[in-house]
Amino acid sequence: MKKIIQYLLFLFSGILIAQQTATSAVLIEKALKEKEILEKTSLVKNVNFTNIGPTIMSGRVADIDVNPNNTMEFYVGYASGGLWYTKNNGTTFTPVLDSSATQNVGDIAIDWSSGTIWVGTGEKNSSRSSYAGIGVLKSIDKGKTWNNVGLLDSHHISRILINPKNTDEVVIGVIGHLYSSNKERGIFKTTDGGETWTKTLFIDENTGIIDVQPAPNNFETLYAASWERNRKAWNFHGNGSKSAIYKSTDAGDSWVKVSDKSGFPMGDGVGRIGLAVFNENIVYALHDSQFRRKGNTNKKPSSTLTKEDFKTMSVGTFLNLTDKKLNSYLKNNGFQEKYRAENVKQMVRVGSVKPIDLAKYLEDANSLLFDTPVVGAEVFKTIDGGASWKKTHEDYLDGLYYSYGYYFGEIRVDHQDENGIYVMGVPILKSKNGGKAFKLISRENVHSDHQALWVNPKKSGHILNGNDGGLNMSYDDGDSWIKLNSPAVGQFYSVYADNQKNYKVYGGLQDNGVWTASHDAKINKRWHQTGQNPYESIMGGDGMQVQVDDRNPNIVYTGYQFGNYFRIDRASGKRTYIQPKHSLGEAPYRFNWQTPIHLSKHNQDILYLGGNKLHRSLNQGDTWETISGDLSSGGKKGNVAYGTLTTISESPFQFGLLYAGSDDGLVHISKNGGGSWSKISNSFPKDLWVSRIAASSHKKERVYVSLNGYRFDDFTPYIFMSDDFGQTWKNIGNAIPIASVNVIKEDPVNKNMLYVGTDNGLYVSFNKGNSWEVFSRNLPNVAVHDLVIQPTAKHLIIGTHGRSLYKANIAPLQLLTDDLAEKSAHFFAINSIRKSNNWGSSRGNWSPPNIPEINISFYSNETKKVIVDVFSNNIKVNSISVDADKGFNEVLYDVSFSKKGRKAFVSKYKESALKNAKNGKYYLPKGVYTVKLESATGRFEIF
Length: 943
Description:
The protein is mainly β. 10% of the residues lie in helices and 35% in strands. Strand 8 (136-139) and strand 9 form a beta hairpin. The protein is globular and about 100 Å long.
């Protein structure tokens, strides 16, 4: 009977979870084609985006591939930042994946003889921001063009191996979907360059392949590691009995499991496995063991209280504790000042608090991360081709994995030294005695989280290390490192712009803290000379949201994961920790990884912060009041914080008109400052992450909501608009090609304009979502996590999760109306320019000349070749031929005369003394000039 009940419970839970279905490969393929068409016809395809960095702090590296015959030449794949190429040992890099449909990289492989590039898309790490891919990409022209050669439903690819003796023969390890079951996982092989694929190893729909490695000089012998893992929004299970090691002796055509009953761990506790193959028989395996550690029966009792003591403590024992001992526990564990021994004992006496509450008070979403007593990282070795395995070390490798080894799992061996191995985790360790003992080789300029490593097979000590902070290179086996961070591949969670005249941008990055810089900072290497990078770090950890006081830009609110927020006074350097704390006896608050904050525009002393409840401070975070009950569905049992708020919005029309959205699909409204709340999300798809709520600045009753199904592998663009405070909703996301939505923002000037950031690009609508236009100029297909509009400068700044920050001028876009769109052409405001005698001159004999430039922006209602004429009064001084597209166009003009225009000008103004610049051009003198295009006119001034 018990088994029947368990089965029914399992079946019922499966039905509940199955409400959200993974997006099919057919729909994804269709969406990619739709977006490609949109890019060609988009009204905003010529709107230029400029990358504004940062580069000093990079993004997560997925893989490195180095030319074995010229180690100055290599490729680096970033988890969500694309593929980059260098031919000068990392001095400079060029992006080569920007023309493809994704920037999400799992693994790369290069046929150096022909230059053919293979990219397995979809990151191999199973983290909360590991984006799915679109199968296998191949380029035969060194990245100029890309062809998708299959496995579209693989989502996450771990390894690509090319047979060096037959480069059409390729073996690929596929992990498969992250949040759902699927069949396209295992090991796949092609013998015709990707024209066809054969699945040669399949375990089940929840177990994929996390690593495949060949024996050097013998592609017939391959080793592979399977990984059983299942991630949900509320839980990650990264181990199981299906995790194992396999071997092939026929180049991957067939496989045999070699880890069973061989000394290698077996059972439900087997986690992620990484492999390093020295030769056909000698292999190392790095195992993330999720088996529990054996208790220490010899542990001596301590006089110091721990939270574990209170979990089983009786009331009588508690009341007999000395005040000194209890106060020591309370103070050392950061209890609020009001909780001291005397009054806590009184609370226990009257029954308002139980002893166990003193343990619960300390528990939060981080506790499972560090308190889980698992074995963790361990290294095994076989010397007989997998017939037997033996652990190389006696002690635990503490401090390498903690409890999230699923995020790492890579091991390498020096092919010139059988006993030289490297293991990657929170630090990077090396061993020179076959894993018996290890040495730390991280240094002060190397990020702590390590993901990829290339070890020169011909020169010991030469290594390239890819980590969460970018790329490092060493020539002395890790004693010292050079940082190679020039690509702008930061993984931003959030972006903010303050209201200063020369405004600053701020942003929180994955595992790289919070950074700020002037919006017009120059992103180049000059800072190596000056010693001052334009970007400044103001917070560590995983950087989260930022709010800045409009009255004093030195007052910044920001923090790191799980709601750990601070108020920073940048003038004095003072930091004040401001996270709301639950009361003793109250269930601990749950905080999302990306906990939302909001500084009220009605009163800049008022700050909102969302846990599972909404909290409000009236004094800049010094004290808090809770203004809601639990606004989620109550959470779920698991090891990931869940049942938490993800977004907060306050109407600019009314103080206290509040909206809050949760990670389990609920949206609530309060019209009285949190006095009461109503749920307004009953008609939405269930359980989806509410990625953003935006209360309208144009109409009090209007509100926008976006939902994100990424955590169900559901990539449908869910966007809704309401004109009655959420009583009824209109779906306005249907016209966007399939991609999960992270943010929606209303334009502050044009009431009809909306911006949407998805996991695969940026869109704008000029008609409240009835149709959408896609941005693409200098902006690759990358995840856009956040948007901010600087209203005075009229700049749109986007925070991408993989390519740092971009900026665009949206002033012309804000002026688009139906009447303007019907005109054959229309000029937008042209910035004036200051005259300089240095135009056309160089700073030195070898420097390029100083070329002036103005941007002439115009709208055309059809695609055609046009002529933009420039006039001084009635004299045509220059003409510019432009291949105009329907929509917004930009032409750059160097304010020079044409030969014919100069002759006409001199003829009219004989007294003018036009000077020939050093670059041979004649530049316009000071004055007001008119530009004409058909019936459209514009003007600019040289002053």
